[in-house]
Amino acid sequence: MFAAALIVLEVATVTWSVKLKPVYEYGALRYASAGTSPEIPFMVVLVMIPLLAAGAVLWKRRVTSALFWGTIVMGAGSAIRLPVRSSAVANLFELVLIGALWLSVASLRNRRPAKAS
Predict the structure, then answer these.
(1) How many domains, the chain?
(2) Domain of 63?
(3) Per the domain annotation, does 95 fall within a domain?
(4) What sign results for the dihedral spanned by CA atoms 104, 91, 41, 72?
(5) Which of 54, 64, 96, 112 has fewest C-beta within 10 Å?
(6) In a structure prediction context, what are the per-residue pLDDT tens digits for the chain, which is 117 residues long?
(7) Across-strand partners of 31?
């Protein structure tokens, strides 16, 4: 339900009213917003709240702190404008979050006892 509500929120507040323009960056075509984008990416913030909560639970249960810290790094990377010309640096923070998710799942799998056959 949370994911469905976020999709409806994003479509209603951002997607329907967006105007796109073609932009060539480093020899590749991409489409960017022709207007101003919201300063606070609400979708990112709202998605990160349950990730941060799950990371805190995993850390408290002494499984792993990777999801908590990966979410913090992703949030900081989205919030702070780095003095880098490329907008692709945001992908690095997403990669950190993906790695943290993978490490958390691996830690949970290793912690569970094997099923008896």
Answers:
(1) 1
(2) 40-111
(3) yes
(4) positive
(5) 112
(6) 888 988 898 888 877 888 888 988 778 888 887 877 666 677 888 889 999 999 999 999 999 999 999 999 998 887 777 787 776 777 889 999 999 999 999 999 988 666 665
(7) 22
